[in-house]
Design a protein that fits this description.
Length: about 350
């Protein structure tokens, strides 16, 4: 049975990560970089929100949702990440419970018709009735009413978040334009060069003799580079002899601003014209050869080009701010105990 997140399957999803119900089947772990956390979650309390208990099962489900790769490792998490994942998951399940209790306090309801539609949509995700009933048996002791209440809870959480977060996070085009005009400098593309490189590494702690050997090889490569006639010729040589990561792209870095280049290379490259190939450049532990393909003047990016992404980014920022503020407000008036 695949892991299924309930709110992804509901008809009214707005992108919030809510109300998960999913089976968990542990498997052997061989990767020593992973460690078991709550693979055998038994329902042990991990927190109480106004007396309502959240368990290690709730926590584990959220952790697996945040880091689904752990499903491939028997429900275990990378040692370096486990503590952060656990803290994030605990915060999320606490927040969901706080939102649900607030929704009940506001007397929010879900109509039977809407609930039936959500359950029908959830059921449709299974390949067969047998698979669906097996899932309900494993997760809810066969109780469809418990599943129904879980889905009702998720819808109520989602509805309150729509009211307090999603709708309030709406950004108008006028607001987007105001932001653009206020921070025009953030939407300026500086002058850039389209370059290709061939780089030969100088090993760390290399002896003078070893550096001389690399230098001699680099001079030979430089002669070959000077013999190339165009982008393709230089690129094929880069694929053959270069030792940097750009070799798989014919040494092509596309457009790079001066600030994005190492100073030693920028000083040379910015004095070149399109089509020119540099001499050898020593930059840290590399011998580099640069070919300039083109020069692009700096320009102010028009509002029309950035409007869609900027609007999305501003809305995302407002969503995070509103959600964090709501969490603080709800937590301030609740009794939260972490066990």
């Amino acid at each position: 049975m695949p892991r299924i997140r309930l709110m992804i399957l509901l008809l009214s999803v707005t992108g919030s990560v809510l109300g998960q119900i999913a089976p968990y089947v542990p498997s052997p772990v061989e990767n020593s970089g992973f460690q078991s956390l709550t693979v055998n979650a038994t329902g042990k309390p991990v927190a109480r929100i106004n007396g309502i208990v959240l368990t290690d099962k709730d926590l584990l489900r959220e952790m697996l949702a945040m880091f689904p790769y752990a499903n491939q490792h028997g429900g275990t998490f990378p040692k370096a990440m486990e503590a952060d994942i656990r803290r994030g998951a605990l915060s999320m399940i606490e927040f969901e419970e706080l939102v649900f209790q607030e929704a009940k306090h506001r007397k929010m309801t879900v109509t039977p018709k809407r609930l039936d539609s959500a359950i029908e949509a959830f059921n449709a995700q299974f390949s067969s009735e047998e698979q669906f009933h097996s899932y309900v048996k494993n997760e809810f002791n066969g109780s469809l009413s418990n599943l129904r209440e879980k889905i009702r809870r998720s819808i109520m959480i989602d509805d309150l978040l729509k009211t307090e977060v999603t709708q309030k996070a709406a950004v108008t085009e006028a607001q987007v334009r105001t932001y653009y005009e206020k921070y025009r400098s953030r939407f300026y593309d500086p002058e850039s060069l389209a370059i290709q490189t061939i780089s030969l590494a100088i090993p760390e702690h290399a002896t003078p003799q070893h550096v001389a050997q690399v230098s001699k090889h680099a001079e030979d490569v430089l002669r070959q580079a000077k013999d190339t006639k165009n982008y393709e010729g230089f690129g094929r040589l880069a694929e053959k002899v270069s030792e940097d990561d750009w070799r798989v792209m014919m040494g092509d870095h596309h457009s790079v601003s001066r600030a994005e280049m190492p100073p030693d290379i920028a000083k040379v490259a910015w004095a070149m014209q399109p089509g020119q190939i540099s001499e050898l450049i020593r930059s840290e532990n590399w011998f580099c050869i640069v070919r300039v393909s083109a020069r692009q003047a700096g320009r102010q990016i028009p509002f029309a080009e950035v409007k869609a992404k900027l609007k999305k980014d501003l809305q995302a920022t407002k969503v995070e701010d509103l959600r964090a503020n709501l969490h603080r407000q709800l937590r301030a008036k609740a009794r939260v105990e972490e066990l």
